[in-house]
UniProtKB/TrEMBL annotation:
One of its GO terms (biological process) is rRNA base methylation. Pfam families: Methyltransf_10. GO terms for cellular component: cytoplasm. GO terms for molecular function: 23S rRNA (adenine(1618)-N(6))-methyltransferase activity. Belongs to the methyltransferase superfamily. METTL16/RlmF family. Residues 1-29 are annotated as: Disordered. This is Ribosomal RNA large subunit methyltransferase F. It comes from Hymenobacter cyanobacteriorum. Its main location: cytoplasm. It is found in: Cytoplasm.
Length: 329
């Protein structure tokens, strides 16, 4: 794959915090006529909404899946994408934002120049059956990915997506994490290093909390009416909740990263709840992180952020850049 162009210094400036990242191709409203023309399977789901604009019923899992297929085809050249029934079908615009902010983080760590795509290796913790982050990262920046998951079905689905699309072939390795309570332990191989790790951790602390969240989402979409909630974006248990919820998962990630400080230049995770941050910062201080960055993100009223940390000293970072990113100079 051709190396992506270097990012000019101006492109790593902070984005407007009520909008998607400046390089995110999903900033404009969905062009449903164009998407339906390119992906006819979307057309039956498109109809005028109460405001007179074309849209889909975002409470309908089939409609959301058809939209994702159309977006992946139009923006990323993905002709073949599918997920098993009931697995997470994520909203693509917000997922793309994480990837673009990670590119900024790399550029900022390299004098404003994004290192060459083929040389950047990223570990996606919890890749899921949808394989969204590796797809976007590969097609936008040419990165190489390892995607981990505790669910064998999800791993096989991600492998099928990689194999079915020539633009992804050989660039994404989906790998099973054999220990459900571990993150890096037992997964990262001896001598293996990553320029970035990324993760969208399970949000809820229990199945009951996940169900309640689904009910709230259903109601906000105008489909509550006392009916059993429909997971329009889907999600298996391990995708939606874990013991300790988001806070507990990220603390475990910090602890495990501290035991292998030279495995990655930047470890990162999304943090959905602002109240999770103080505990994350305490865990990072205890683990001995040498630098921590918090990058705010937003999509309209939805606010989120990513936290990035490294254990490398300035000298180790310089050696990393010279060894792995030298061809970018």
């Amino acid at each position: 794959m051709k190396k992506p162009a270097s990012l000019p210094a101006a492109s790593v400036a902070p984005a407007e915090k009520d909008q998607l990242h400046p390089r995110n191709p999903h900033r404009a409203p969905y062009d449903f006529p164009l998407l339906s023309k390119e992906s006819p399977a979307l057309a039956p789901f498109v109809r005028p909404n109460p405001y007179g604009s074309l849209s889909i019923d975002f409470a309908d899992p089939a409609a959301v899946k058809a939209l994702n297929r159309a977006l992946l085809k139009h923006f990323y050249g993905i002709e073949h994408w599918d997920i098993p029934k009931g697995y997470l079908c994520p909203p693509i615009p917000g997922r793309a934002d994480y990837v673009h902010y990670l590119a900024d983080l790399l550029a900022e760590s390299n004098g404003g120049v994004l290192p060459p795509g083929e040389e950047i290796t990223v570990l996606d913790v919890g890749v899921g059956a949808n394989c969204i982050y590796p797809i976007i990262g590969r097609r936008a920046y040419g990165w190489h990915f390892v995607g981990s998951d505790v669910d064998g079905t999800a791993v096989r689905a991600a492998q099928q997506i990689e194999a079915a699309n020539p633009g992804l072939a050989g660039a994404i390795e989906a790998r099973l994490q054999p220990a459900r309570t571990r993150i890096f332990d037992g997964l990262i191989q001896s001598g293996e290093v990553f320029d970035l790790t990324m993760c969208n951790p399970p949000f809820h602390a229990s199945a009951a909390a996940a169900a309640a969240g689904s009910q709230r989402k259903t109601s906000s979409l105008g489909t509550g009416r006392g009916a059993r909630p429909v997971l329009n974006f889907g999600g298996q248990n391990n995708e939606l909740w874990c013991e300790g919820g988001e806070a507990g998962f990220i603390r475990r990630m910090v602890q495990e990263s501290g035991r292998r400080p030279r495995t990655a230049y930047w470890f990162t995770s999304l943090v959905s709840k602002k109240e999770t941050l103080p505990g994350v910062y305490r865990a990072l201080q205890t683990a001995g992180a040498t630098e921590v960055k918090t990058i705010e993100m937003a999509q309209g009223q939805k606010k989120s952020r990513l936290v990035a940390w490294t254990f490398l000293t300035p000298a180790q970072r310089e050696a990393w850049r010279k060894t792995r990113w030298s061809t970018a100079q």
